[in-house]
Design a protein that fits this description.
Strand 25 and strand 26 form a beta hairpin. The longest helix has 20 residues, at about 620-635. An eight-stranded mixed beta sheet has the order 17-16-18-19-26-25-24-22, covered by helices on one side. It has a five-stranded mixed beta sheet with strand order 5-4-3-6-7, with helices on both faces. Strands 10, 11, 12, 14 and 15 form a five-stranded antiparallel beta sheet that branches. The two termini are about 35 Å apart. With about 650 residues, it is of the alpha+beta class.
């Protein structure tokens, strides 16, 4: 047993005060009276008024002491535990997206906080508590707190995030901390919407959430070209145990489209199609459910999609004349080709150089400001790659996993003479022959570079289907289309943003009001040094410089814009921006069934293991004190 408010035990000083009042006799004035006949009925009162008399047991005294003791204990709020009190404990607090669900009349995270506070209040004397909140990564909230009030203060202001949860790193951290303590309990407070973990036999589980929780979600929004416009397909999923119905509202740009109705049984999904949408505009979808009791998670009720945005790349071909390169570059989609001679090239470098890719045919220097393709460079060095002497390569062999050899068939390609390339740090070989590198790509001096170590006129490559494919792959790697952004992004996902060849800075800013609104739903009070999002509505996040750019981690669903500042101010594409749709649907987080992550099958949990729970005795003691006071009043009124 412990006390919630031990400071109020000072009220117990009333007990010795009551005893003192019985011991000390009040001083009375003496006087002469003619008779004591009428005073004989009050000898006890006279005896009790003697100073420092011996304390005699009296019913009123014991009743008053009992009332004072009850009031003292009630003020201190003692708690009694059903079961044994806890020793030191390490709590893993789930703060992932599913903890935003409201099936309990409050968020699951709020209930989880109450569970952690109850565990803190049940600590036995000398025990400590450590709390680790986690979503995609763990964060220490409080460490080895011996006072439950310290835990209460640390939990204030915590909120769940929009990220999917990952129990593995948090459990590893808890076990590492546990090795420094005397066999502490490790308790997971979660709804179980996590990937199952191995070797979790030492993990106790405290579940939050209702078995009948339901959720209908927008599981996807895809766009595809349709005639001169585009078509949108929305996927709706019912994760609940009962049938649900509602509507999906769609907007293309600023134009509101006709809503579509849907009706789904338990566990069913459907696809809704809008075939005639204007081209080139982002699309947003919003879910409305007829029965609000069938949708306890609002995080996945909206979805966004952006059309593919093709950026035209400016390419400068520096050559004395190469008909193969000129024609092949000229037919590549999204490429503007400019030409100059090697003699004109240095003068262009001295001015405003606005070519994102430079193709140097028969040259190895100087390096241009952007990306570059070197074709048949002379012996020497190119940004850490040594170009050696010529040799006759036998059969060519492509390297597995090469970034520029997708769908390139080298089996029919022959090269009469090639340079021996020696890739240094930051380079990777793509094609080898007799153990020597013939083609390589890499990064040197902050630029993307590719070297073809042979003259096209000394090979039959321009006559093979592999040539345009290899050139297309090379251009795509040098200037990644759509900044290499994935089609689907979810909160918490690390997004690698490719820097364009002439990029000087890269920033991310929220576009939709929803993105700003959900920014408040984050672990804002927990230090998060790895999250690039500063949590301020409307604030930009700088990814670069320095280069290469840092990964971007979107904190909430919504529409975002990535802006790359390139080249000089008079460059036509001075700022290149791309919209990115971040959608909150995650299959594991949107399915609100309470599960056991200690089971590899993710079994549902119908009951939790018994654990010590505190029960406050303050109310019982207060009622006892009131009853005793009433009895004491009754006894005193009868003259005892």
């Amino acid at each position: 047993m412990s006390f919630l408010h031990p400071l109020f035990l000072w009220v117990g000083l009333t007990l010795p005060a009551i005893v003192a009042l019985y011991i000390l006799r009040p001083r009375r004035r003496e006087m002469i009276v003619p008779s004591t006949l009428f005073w004989q009925a009050a000898p006890s009162s006279i005896e009790a008024s003697r100073p420092w008399q011996r304390l005699k047991p009296r019913l009123l005294l014991w009743l008053q002491l009992l009332a004072a003791a009850s009031l003292t204990l009630g003020a201190a709020a003692p708690v009694w535990y059903w079961g044994s009190p806890s020793k030191s404990v390490i709590v893993l607090l789930d703060a992932s997206a599913s903890m935003n669900a409201t099936d309990l009349g409050q968020t699951r995270f709020s209930r989880a906080l109450r569970e952690v506070e109850a565990l803190a209040d049940s600590l036995e004397k000398g025990a400590t508590m450590t709390v680790i909140a986690f979503d995609r990564q763990p964060r220490m909230v409080v460490r080895e707190a011996a006072d439950s009030r310290q835990v209460h203060r640390a939990l204030q202001g915590l909120k769940p995030s929009c990220y999917p949860g990952d129990l593995g790193p948090a459990l590893s951290l808890a076990r590492a901390l546990g090795r420094q303590q005397d066999r502490p309990r490790i308790v997971l407070v979660s709804d179980g919407g996590l990937a199952p973990v191995d070797n979790a036999g030492d993990l106790e589980l405290v579940t939050v959430g209702k078995d009948g929780a339901a959720n209908v979600a927008l599981a996807g929004l895809q766009l595809r070209p349709a005639g001169e416009g585009q078509a949108a397909q929305v996927t709706v999923v019912n994760h609940g145990g009962r049938a649900a119905s509602g509507q999906v509202y769609l907007s293309a740009g600023r134009q509101e489209m006709q809503a579509r109705k849907w009706h789904l049984g338990p566990g069913e999904s459907t696809h809704l199609l809008w075939p005639d949408l204007p081209a080139g505009v982002p699309v947003a979808a919003r879910l409305a459910v007829d029965d609000a009791g069938m949708d306890h998670l609002a995080l996945d009720n909206q979805a966004w999609a952006v059309p593919e945005n093709k950026h035209r790349v400016r390419v400068l071909l520096v050559s004395r004349g190469n008909i193969f390169l000129e024609r092949a570059l000229g037919v590549l989609p999204g490429v503007e080709v400019y030409k100059c001679t090697p003699q004109e090239y240095p003068s262009l470098l001295g001015g405003a150089y606005n070519y994102e890719i430079t193709v140097l045919d028969g040259l190895n220097s100087p390096l241009p400001p952007g990306a570059a393709l070197f074709v048949n460079p002379p012996a020497g060095e190119v940004a850490g790659l040594k170009v050696g002497g010529k040799f006759h390569p036998p059969a060519l062999a492509g390297m597995e996993g090469s970034a520029i050899l997708h769908y390139v068939d080298l089996s029919q390609v022959h090269i009469a003479s090639a340079r021996d390339l020696e890739p240094g740090s930051g380079w990777a070989a793509d094609v080898k022959a007799a153990g020597k590198t013939v083609l390589a790509h890499g990064q040197g001096q902050g630029k993307r570079l590719v070297v073809w170590g042979f003259d096209l006129h000394d090979s039959d490559l321009p006559l093979r289907p592999a040539f345009p494919v290899l050139l297309h792959n090379t251009m795509a790697w040098l200037a990644p289309p759509d900044l290499e952004l994935p089609a689907q992004v979810y909160p918490g996902q690390e997004v690698e943003v490719a820097a364009l060849p002439l990029a000087r800075g890269i920033e991310v800013e929220p576009v939709s009001p929803e993105a700003v609104f959900f920014r408040g739903a984050s672990l804002s009070s927990v230090p998060n040094e790895n999250n690039l999002d500063d949590g301020k509505p409307g604030a930009r996040v700088v990814l670069a410089p320095p280069f290469p750019p840092a990964p971007w981690i979107p904190s909430a669903p919504g529409l975002y814009r990535i802006v790359e500042s390139c080249g000089d101010g008079d460059y036509p594409g001075h700022q290149i921006s791309r919209l990115v749709a971040v959608n909150g649907y995650h299959p594991r987080e949107s399915d609100l069934r309470v599960r056991d992550p200690r089971s590899q099958q993710g079994e549902e949990v119908t009951s939790t293991a018994p654990r010590p729970r505190p029960r406050s005795l303050a109310g019982l003691l207060s009622a006892l004190a009131l009853a005793v006071v009433l009895v004491e009043w009754g006894v005193a009124s009868r003259g005892h």
